Recover the amino acids of this structure.
């Protein structure tokens, strides 16, 4: 999106916030993490379906679905990017966390060896009063870390 001649990047999670969809985003995130627990080796297939939840039963398997499938295996990284609002800007040597938050069931999350250009960082996100509290655990290089509230 162009503003004043500059390109501004936003995460799709930010778009969810702009349209009042944070709760549905967290509901989807939670449901996917709950579903993956029912698949062997936590390998999410490309397709599965669900009916009304019953205690002790997981999603219904689709018999010919590939397990795992590239887009299913990659969804966890999109969800982490979404909850933390990760916006990498390699050309500016900056990593922005745009209104990071964690679902209520996830008390903390650590990312190690996160690379941006020639820099590497390790971050810890933990439940905070307003969104997730971010702690810089390690930095190798001169990447700028920005946390937007």
């Amino acid at each position: 999106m162009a503003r004043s001649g500059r390109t501004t990047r936003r995460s799709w999670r930010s778009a969810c916030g702009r349209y009042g969809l944070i709760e549905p985003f967290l509901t989807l995130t939670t449901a996917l993490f709950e579903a993956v627990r029912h698949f062997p080796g936590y390998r999410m297939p490309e397709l599965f379906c669900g009916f009304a939840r019953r205690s002790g039963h997981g999603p219904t398997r689709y018999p010919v679905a590939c397990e795992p499938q590239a887009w299913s295996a990659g969804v966890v990284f999109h969800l982490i990017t979404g909850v933390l609002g990760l916006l990498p800007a390699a050309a500016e040597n900056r990593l922005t966390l745009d209104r990071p938050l964690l679902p209520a069931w996830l008390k903390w999350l650590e990312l190690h060896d996160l690379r941006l250009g020639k820099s590497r960082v390790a971050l810890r996100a933990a439940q905070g009063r307003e969104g997730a509290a971010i702690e810089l655990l390690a930095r190798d290089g001169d990447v700028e870390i920005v946390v937007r509230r």
Summary: The first helix runs from residue 12 to 18.
